[in-house]
Design goal:
This protein is mainly alpha-helical. It has a single domain, classed as Hypothetical Protein Ta1238, Chain: A (Up-down Bundle), CATH 1.20.1200.10. It has 5 helices and 4 strands, in the order ββαααβααβ. The strands form 2 sheets. The protein has a two-stranded antiparallel sheet with strand order 1-2. Strands 3-4 form a two-stranded antiparallel ribbon. A hairpin with a 5-residue loop joins strand 1 and strand 2. It is elongated.
Length: 190
Amino acid sequence: MVVLNKIYTRTGDKGTTALGNGDRVAKHDARVNAYGTSDELNATLGLARLHAGGEMDARLAAIQNDLFDLGADLCRPDLSGDAEADYPPLRMVAAQVTRLETEIDAMNKGLSALRSFILPGGSALSAHLHLCRTVARRAERLATELATVEEVNPHVVTYLNRLSDWFFVAARVANDNGAGDVLWVPGANR
């Protein structure tokens, strides 16, 4: 359990922050950028939830929790040292990806095939989910960039990849199962 008695510590005043293993790195470190963007995605998702209800809200809440897991995973480098850690680090697992895939397939069943690209918009929820999709793509780019120089749990990258797909399909569901999608018209304003 996390206990936060004091919010400011002054330990980051010189531009560094602590990772989950205690190492201090620059606040602009690639690892910090990756988990910081997953936190930004989580905040963006909180805005989307203002427009969701019922089952959609429950699914979004589960994703928010997953994103905290993902941030905890990314802030703890050195996967090979997990066995020697004082406590087992929280890592993303394949079941979290599988859940997203199952939900994507279920949501997609009620949607007609696309004949055009979709412009972000339509309902308020759909527009917010499209924003979540783009932030998820950025988080994925940062995680894959980090993985070129440091070890990253592959389930993190797979989860972020699948999550952007989840947001796309959910945005269509939020647009009256695609009936309210705003379609791109190539060259419409030439």
